[in-house]
Inverse folding.
């Protein structure tokens, strides 16, 4: 039996997931059904499945979006019987880059985060510059 290998230049691990997941505002780690998982505020964000080195992701486009992703890239995305009735997707960590992981988590974050976390950081008004004094010429 041929061993599955990751596509060239791809692959993240659980430590990468943790680092990126916790970089989002109010993201924190806590157990979910006895397994380590990440939440934003009180909502499920993601978790790594150690049994198959995959990431559990909610799909914002619902079941139709999920099914399309499964069909378009079955090497990267899959589900188990447990997830068949939910808009959830499993992502093989060996098939994504850190940039792809960040993009996926950012989409998920934007879908579940409280609105106060989505507001852009208000910029402090720039300090007014005092007018330059003109030198007197003689």
């Amino acid at each position: 039996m041929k061993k599955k290998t990751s596509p060239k230049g791809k692959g993240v691990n659980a430590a990468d997931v943790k680092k990126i997941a916790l970089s989002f505002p109010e993201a924190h780690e806590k157990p979910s059904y006895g397994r380590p998982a990440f939440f934003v505020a009180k909502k499920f964000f993601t978790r790594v499945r150690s049994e198959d080195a995959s990431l559990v992701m909610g799909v914002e486009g619902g079941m139709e979006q999920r099914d399309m992703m499964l069909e378009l890239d079955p090497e990267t995305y899959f589900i188990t019987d447990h997830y068949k009735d939910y808009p959830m997707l499993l992502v093989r960590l060996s098939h994504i880059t850190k940039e792809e992981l960040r993009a996926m988590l950012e989409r998920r974050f934007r879908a579940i985060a409280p609105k106060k976390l989505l507001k852009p950081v208000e910029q402090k008004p720039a300090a007014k510059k005092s007018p330059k004094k003109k030198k007197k010429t003689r």
Q: What stands out?
A: The chain has one domain: 14-114.
